[in-house]
Design brief:
The protein is α+β, with helices and mostly antiparallel strands. It contains ten helices and 22 strands. It binds flavin-adenine dinucleotide (FAD).
Length: 455
Amino acid sequence: MNDGMNRRDWLRKLTASGVAAGLGSCAAHSVWAQNPGESSGFQSSIINSDELVAERASPSIENGRVIQPARELPVLHDTDVLVVGGGPAGICAAIAAKRAGADVVLVERYGHFGGLWTGGLVLLVIGHIVKGGGQVCQGIGEEMMRRLDKLKGAIIDRRPGVAPTVDAEAVKYLMVEMIEEAGVKVFLHCWGVDAIVNGDQVRGAVFESKSGRQAILAKTVVDATGDGDVYAMAGASYERRSHNVGLVSRIGNLDRTDASQAQGGAKPRHLGRATPVPGINWVNMHGPEVDGLDVEVLTRMEMNHRKFIWRNMQRTRSIPGYDQAYLVETAPQLGVRITRAMHGLKTITLKDLKAGTTFPDVVGVGGAAGGEHGPWQIPYGALLPTKVDNLLAAGRCISAEMRMADLVRLIPNCFVTGQAAGVGAAVAVRDGCTPRNVAVPEVQKILREQEAYLG
Ligand SMILES: Cc1cc2nc3c(=O)[nH]c(=O)nc-3n(C[C@H](O)[C@H](O)[C@H](O)COP(=O)(O)OP(=O)(O)OC[C@H]3O[C@@H](n4cnc5c(N)ncnc54)[C@H](O)[C@@H]3O)c2cc1C
């Protein structure tokens, strides 16, 4: 190495000249491995490890208690709107905020977008319609559906009044495309572990990743974690709820089964519903009602469900005519339905749904499974916490009474609350106020410009 050039400069120079081309440099190497295994064609280089280690302040044991000392955190980014969670709500929030003119950072704990929709293999999109067949989920959610329609093998049953089923990989792909088009700055593999709070104002969040513990500062934060992790850490008031926790799976070769052979004998159970991939079904699972925030419960659910799914598949394969069926995959993400519901300035209630209550601060309209309910309005106040400020919630963890939880959490309704939260956050930044002080008519105007349906 030359004098006066440190290893980082040296590596940068090599990379720029194309000599140290890595996977990102497609001109020099195919992105595919040349061999079925990884036996050749790859090399690793030493990276200056000092760069990766933030200031260390390891916990110690004092009087039998583990104590974490105070330490300064590196600031990874400073932005207008920080969206935590890249599920259906978070993706819509990030795109909506960016389209409304804000600088947006989206942070996601896993390596893909879509949340339970993709990682949880929840492929059936219920809740975009209401009694009589009217479609209430429009805006960015509907744009996603239209774009999935144009991709081969990405969606089936996309007809008026019917709940369509998607392919998870197509959704993951489309979400990357839409987030990139919008110009949202993304950090994947970042787990939000704390909120940064000044007085009662949320000013960002702290993340753990392979790069260590870092902070992202923001003028406004949207909690789209599904579990309300950010508002809980920020000190907002909420209700903790138990719900059914299952594990979704996909099974294959169903086009090679012969039900006639099984006649009179055992019948296969849990064969699920068709997906856009021929011969492959997705199999939902209800699971027991448990606390989806208890790590020991989550561990037990994963292990028990995995055993159940595998054994059920073996049983199916032992039935004449079904020996070719196989387990394609279990969802990488456990099926946690509801955990926290925020105490909001307003709360979505069954009484209001039944009465058809309208709200002056309506920012969306919710649908139902099979369209068995009429339209129910979503007030902006259901996205705003009672206690802390500068924060909006979106998706399945907003303010709704328990009887409404199963409607609020449906994927299209999460698109709707995500888009509303994103626009609310962007307007707050633009007008230099907090989300609870924004001019709601301005939020409604931008939502309509973004083709959202407000009734
Ligand atoms: C088993 C099951 C079956 C279902 N069936 C249907 C159905 O048939 N039809 C339907 O419409 N809906 C169904 N649902 C509901 C629907 O899938 C979810 O309610 C919906 O995906 C919620 O969207 P969301 O964006 O609010 O949250 P999620 O989809 O949970 O997304 C939250 C995102 O935030 C990320 N995240 C969480 N915590 C953190 C953190 N601390 N830091 C960083 N990132 C974080 C997660 O990784 C995830 O990507 C089902 C749900 C389950 C569990």
